[in-house]
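Most newcomers find our protein records easier to grasp once they have seen one. Each record describes a single protein and holds just a pair of labelled lines. A learned vocabulary of local backbone shapes supplies the integers on the structure line. Nothing more is needed to start thinking about how sequence determines fold. The record below serves as our worked example for the rest of this section.
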Amino acid sequence: AYTQDQITARIQRGLNASTTAIWSTAVIVQCIQDGLVELADYIPNVVLATVTTPSGTAEVDISGVTKLIEVMDVEYEPDKNPRRFRNFDIKGNTLIISTDVSPDANDEVRLYCNKPHDLYGSTSTLDPNIEPLFVDLVASHLAIDYSVDLINNVNIGGARSWQDFIAWGERKLERTIKQLKKLKPIEIQQEFPKDA
């Protein structure tokens, strides 16, 4: 698995910018962070989180769940057999469990959360097979963003430099998104019972 520094170097090489300072490391790192969120839309990074219910209500505060992109599944009364997944709704920072059971104070609720991927060496959530696609995803966004800066500038590459950058970035982004869509799991909508 690549580290963030290795991913940054690969992105710079992909943009032919390893020896020029077109993009600062800070800009690339920010784009990497944005890319980790975007990647989770196609390849979810499912992380378990546990919250507890207040007494007598199935409305649970989820504001303490950090870096939450979406709640994918909810298991109320976890570790039972059969498992008790529940339908739910979210309004702001409140998750409302659809259940006929009246929760006690501090009943456990297990959330299956989609969170951004991370790039921290041995704990990286990126599959090594996905890393080249991730590099292309970030590089294409950087090229598209940079093309705007080239409009009305005198460029070594000529008057069409901005058009070349945007065309290259859009082609690369389109190919990358197409490949990521092939890897996206099929979403199945299920209705779960409300009773115990």
About this structure: The CA atoms of residues 47 and 178 lie 25 Å apart. The longest strand covers residues 46-52. The helical segments are 4-14, 25-42, 131-150, 161-183. The chain has four helices and six strands.
